[in-house]
Amino acid sequence: MLKTTSNERKRGDSAPNGLKIQIEIPRKSLLVLLIVLAIPYLVGVGFLLSKVNWHRAFPTNDASYMEGAVACNPGPWGHLEYIPIKIETPEEFLSIQAFESTDPRWFFGNMTRDAALAAMDRAGISSSERAQLVNAKWDTAANGVFVTPPTDLVISLKPQVRQAVYTTLAQFQENSSQQDVFFFPSEDMKTFFDKSGVSEETVALVKKLCYPHGKLQFFADLPLVLRKLQTYDDKRRLAKAVSRRSTLLLKLFINADSNVDELLKYWAKAGTEKDLRPMLESLAKVPGGARISLINVLPPQPAARLYTFALPSLEPLEHDNCHWTSFNFFKDPPDNSFTNAAIVRKTLETDYYPVFTDPRYGDLVFLAKPNGEIIHSSVYVADNIVYTKNGGHYLSPWMLMRIPEMVDAFSAMYPADQQLKVSYYRNKYY
Question: Of 14, 222, 387, 401, which sits 20 to 30 A from 140 (CA to CA)?
Answer without folding.
Answer: 222
